[in-house]
Design goal:
- The complex is a heterodimer of chains A (446) and B (449).
- Chain A contains 18 helices and 14 strands.
- With 446 residues, chain A is an alpha/beta fold.
- Chain A has a 6-stranded parallel sheet with strand order 5-2-1-6-7-8, sandwiched between helices. Chain A has a 3-stranded antiparallel sheet with strand order 9-10-11. In chain A, strands 3-4 form a two-stranded antiparallel ribbon.
- In chain A, a hairpin with a 2-residue loop joins strand 3 and strand 4.
- The radius of gyration of chain A is 26 Å and the shape is globular.
- By secondary structure, chain B is of the alpha/beta class.
- Chain B folds into 2 domains: 268 residues, 3-Layer(aba) Sandwich (Rossmann fold), CATH 3.40.50; 87 residues, formyl-coa transferase, domain 3.
- The chains are: A alpha/beta (446), B alpha/beta (449).
- Chains A and B meet through helix 1, helix 2, strand 3, helix 4 and helix 8 of A and helix 1, helix 3, helix 5, helix 7 and helix 8 of B.
- Strand 14 of chain A pairs antiparallel with strand 6 of chain B, so a sheet runs across the interface.
Amino acid sequence: MSKDKDKDKAKEQVLVRYGISRREREQFLASMMLPGDKPEVLGDLVVLDASYANFSGIIAASLFAEFGAEVIKIEPPKGDPARKITPYGARVDGVGIPFLMEARNKRYFELDLETAAGRNDFKKLAAKADVIIETYPAGQMDEWGIGYRQLSKENPDLIYIAITPYGQYTDKAKDLRNLPDSDITSQAASGLAANIGDPDLSPEPYNWPFRAGAWIGWYISGLEAALGGAIALTYKADAGQGQMIDVATSDAYASMVGYPVFIGFTWEKARPRLGKHDFTLYPYGFWKSKDGIVAIAAPRDHDFRALLKILKIWKIEDDWRFTFDRITDILEQIERLYDLIEAETVKYTSDELITKALQYSIKAARSKWRGGGVPIVMKVPTPSEAMQNPHWKIRESFQEIDDKKLGKFIIPANFIKMSESPPRVKWISCGIGQDNKYIRKKYMSD
Amino acid sequence: MAGKTEDYFSYTKKLFDPSKINEKPEVFKGIKVLDFSHVIYGPVAARILAQYGAEVFKIEMPFVGDLWRFGVYWGKFWKHSSVCFHFVHFNKYFLSINLKSPKAKELIYKLAEQADVVVENFAAGTAEAWGVGYSQLSKVNPKIIYLSCATYGQYGPLRFFPGWDLLAQAASGAISLSGYPGTDKYYKLPDYLGDYFPGNVGALALVMALYHRKNTGKGQYIDLAQSEALMRTLPNFTYFSVTNQELERVGNTDPTMAPSGIFKSHDGKFVALAVATDEQLTGLFSAMGQKKLAAEYKNTFDRLHPRTARELHRITEEWVSSKDSAEIVDLAKEHRFAVAEVMDDFQIANDEWRRQRGSVISFKDDIYHQFVLPGPSAMLSKTPGRVKWLSRPLGYHNRYILKTFFGLSEEAIKKLEKERVIGYWDDRPGIKPPVYYDIEKDPIFNYKG
């Protein structure tokens, strides 16, 4: 009798936790979260993107466009050189892959800021704009008479975002104002490159600082620019005032994760590169399995114990019991543990390891004796393999674009799910000056 | 035209002056945030609101505390605290309430009635099970903005899988992008970037939701999946769908620019150099004194072909190795191509430019004294972000908040303490105050009110 009651209670708890039924909860959330014809946050906002050969600006503009703003990409007649920044020169209809992927919900307007007529037109547009994004050398727009100083006189609630490697103020910014921006220099200057790569004594060039294989510098800068812009929009709605936002891409990584700064301060040294090891957590990285590399995360003590159990090497538990036994500061020591683990992981296929870890976790979650260890093993996928998971299909994380001119391709989209006003991709298009008429009529006819 | 205009850089210096930050207004003043989140991913989103003026109430379990209070690099605690924890938790109020007790729930619901934002990053469904999910709190306060952060999101077959930054990197495919091709060398993105980046995306979502609420009066539920936020940054999926080829590890170069890479200069320093446009290529070749070569490589797309890119890489490598890094930077200033020296932790923490700019802040805290932490990379001229205090020991603001916000009496608080509804630290570093600090004399911890 009491056992039945316990069972009922357990069942009830499961129901509370998982909703009425799994499927119903899934369907409910899915219908609640996707864009459909929900309102857009920035529906009536105009953003001018005058960025030049700089994806930070383009990405920031994309984020505004996904949240519903009317984004006008301003380009010289030859087009923004960013159109040609693409892996191995891969392109669709003459447009590079990253530019294509970021061509979300945007309008394209031809305008040559190098000419007086172009600058005049820009001024006219700027009077109607809420946000301006530019990436010219610091002071260049000001010299042209279309910088924040001049534009804000006529349009005091203008939000003006300038993105450069070293910002708009300080002596260094002035000294290095002519340096163009790139992702790899942003990674190098902001402390990312210095912390990737093999340890000191490894053969060259593997022990060199290393570039992360994605546009980390540019995406961080773009995101921070949009975030700053959104905060400024809030202030504009409250106080009716615009402001200038200065993004330095050489700050990107250090400002986001903070580690380089506070380790440089508290430890008074730079970290050496650790290769495949992590600075704080262990085991937390890559190991070999029978059929390829797996990622293993089991850093907390109970996770680690669980990992030892499923790999059947409990006998070494005594030496490595606590987090503080597994600190990665003595490289030889941690390599020993690495090898001990790898000697076992290579005996199994990745699927076997994943199953073992999952089964253990499920059992551990229900047992009060196992201490709740959750070791996690995942196969290291290539992006296209990662994309295949049906999970993303249900969440519509990827969107297939079928454009008459550009053909069929896939972009990552719907990256924030919101119940009232989610961001979305409505169209992709990127012809140079394709919306000239529309923009002249809508914003410049008076 | 005015006769004499002020120099641009002296104008911007006044506009952004870091010494005036504390005199400027805060955007989110009066916004209340209930922060159930832990480790990095959720807390960062809440902290960004705190940086711009929101009151963030960080809820932790008494005597347990946030896991990241113990997340120290190489076991090094700093004044009995974790430096990383300071960075993800500054400007917050630290409440230690045991959510398992019904009395605590009363307090939380009272807080939720007046809160504007809730942030959590438990496994999907856990917050609901504890009675603080969106379905429950939106009943208490229909205008609430609720951000759920999870590695895989709140729905879909993978949602119950636990996650770390590493696994978000794996699930998004970002994990397999860094390394040398043809070897088994893979590097993950270091320093939990897989937590920080999505955390910042979460902050963007919150700011947008707050903006939407300002216009329409409606709150909402936000489901943020760490992996999706990382996927948004990768061109690899589009590349694959267009070319049917995998864009994989490329070694120490950027395949979107040629030449590009991290090179070693004559004086043994590492220099990143990249050429994105034709103008920059001309600049680089004229700096090399080989202007004629520019014509040979004038087609941008052809330049990116692996064979040509390797050739350009070799030419650049040779040139960089013959010059000192300072020389290269000087030439870059003149000829306009992208160059940056590789900066390590120590250089960044002590960088004069960053100190002047305010992207590295020297901050004096009441409890922890001198600390150095990063400022934002986006500086706002009128409403800048700022640091007001660092993180605090577990339950530090209990008394202060219970008295000022809930209006509880000293007796009532003592009763809650006795019933273990609220609690404090035990003797572990990470959750207790530093040894030199006399907590008994602290005016906020012992708030009399």
